[in-house]
C-alpha cells in the first residue's frame, strides 16, 4: 500500500465534498489529528477505517488506496498492538474496565472494539475480578478461580501478544482467589475463637484486605 498515494486520494475526496479535516473527523468519530496524519502520509489507514471512509464517500476502498483489491491486507482487528493507532504512544490496558488508553494522547477504546474475538474472554475476566472485589467467601473464591480457568482455556487457543497478556492477568487473578480462600479460612477460625489456627492462615496472606488487623487481634487474644 502506497501511503502517500492513499493520503493524496483521501485529501482529494475530502476537498471534492467541500469538507474540512475537522468535519470529516467528526463524521467518522475520530480525532482531527488522525485525519491530519492520514492526509500527511504519516499514518496508514487501517482496513476498518478505509471501509468506513469508502462508505461515507460512497466509493470503493481500492479507489482510496489506488491498489487492486487482491493486494489489500487482512483486517487489522486480528493484529495485536500495544501502541496507539493515532500517535504511536504506549497503550495501557484495563482488563477489568475492558478498555485501553493511550498514555500519550489519552485516546480510549473498548478492547472488544479493537479485538472482537476477545470480547467474551475479557467479560469473563471482568466478572471474576468483580466477584473477588465484592465478595469475601470461599464460594466466591471458587467461582472466580473457575472463571479465570475458563478464560485461560479460551486464550490458549490463540498465539498472540494479547492472549499471553490475558493469561498473565488470569494467573494473577487465580493467585488473588487463592489468597481470598486462605483469608476466609483465617476469618472463620478467628470468628470461632481458634486464634492460633487463625494466625497460621492469616500469616500467609499478610497485607490482604484486613488480615494484618485480624492478626493483631489474634495475638492480643492469645
Structure description:
This protein has 3 domains: 3-75, 434 Repressor (Amino-terminal Domain) (Orthogonal Bundle); 80-114; 117-221. α8 runs antiparallel to α9 (161-191). Helix content is 60%, strand content 5%. A hairpin with a 5-residue loop joins β2 and β3. Mean pLDDT is 84; it is low at 68-79. It starts with a helix and ends with a helix. Strands 1-2-3 form a 3-stranded antiparallel sheet. The chain has 222 residues and is mainly alpha-helical.
List descriptors.
3 domains; 434 Repressor (Amino-terminal Domain); mainly alpha; 222 residues; elongated; 11 helices; 60% helix; 3 strands
Using only C-alpha atoms, the radius of gyration works out to: 25 Å
Number of helices: 11
Distance between the termini: 74 Å
Written as H for each helix and E for each strand, in order along the chain, the element string is: HHHHHEEEHHHHHH
DSSP strand tally:
3
User: Roughly how much helix do the residues carry, as a percent range?
Assistant: 55-70%
Q: Main beta sheet: strand number and arrangement?
A: 3 strands, antiparallel
Number of domains: 3
- The parts where pLDDT drops under 50 for at least 5 residues are 68-79
The coarse overall form would be elongated
Structural class: mainly alpha
**Averaged pLDDT:** 84
> What portion of the residues fall into strands of 2 or more residues?
under 5%
How are the strands of the biggest sheet laid out side by side? 1-2-3
Amino acid at each position: 500500500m502506497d501511503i502517500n498515494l492513499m493520503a493524496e486520494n483521501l485529501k482529494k475526496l475530502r476537498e471534492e465534498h467541500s469538507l474540512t479535516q475537522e468535519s470529516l473527523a467528526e463524521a467518522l468519530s475520530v480525532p482531527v489529528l488522525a485525519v491530519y496524519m492520514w492526509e500527511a502520509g504519516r499514518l496508514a489507514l487501517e482496513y476498518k477505517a478505509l471501509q468506513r471512509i469508502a462508505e461515507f464517500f460512497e466509493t470503493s476502498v481500492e479507489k482510496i488506496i489506488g491498489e487492486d483489491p487482491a493486494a489489500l491486507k487482512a483486517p487489522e482487528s486480528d493484529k495485536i498492538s500495544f501502541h496507539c493507532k493515532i500517535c504511536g504512544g504506549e497503550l495501557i490496558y484495563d482488563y477489568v474496565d475492558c478498555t485501553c488508553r493511550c498514555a500519550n494522547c489519552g485516546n480510549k477504546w473498548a478492547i472488544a472494539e479493537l479485538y472482537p474475538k476477545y470480547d467474551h474472554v475479557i467479560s469473563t475476566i471482568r466478572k471474576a475480578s468483580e466477584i473477588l472485589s465484592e465478595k469475601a467467601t470461599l464460594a466466591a473464591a471458587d467461582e472466580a478461580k473457575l472463571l479465570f480457568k475458563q478464560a485461560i482455556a479460551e486464550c490458549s487457543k490463540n498465539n498472540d501478544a494479547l492472549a499471553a497478556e490475558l493469561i498473565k492477568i488470569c494467573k494473577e487473578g487465580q493467585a488473588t482467589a487463592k489468597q481470598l480462600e486462605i483469608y476466609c479460612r483465617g476469618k472463620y477460625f478467628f470468628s470461632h475463637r481458634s486464634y492460633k489456627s487463625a494466625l497460621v492462615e492469616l500469616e500467609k496472606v499478610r497485607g490482604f484486605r484486613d488480615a494484618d488487623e485480624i492478626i493483631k487481634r489474634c495475638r492480643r487474644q492469645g
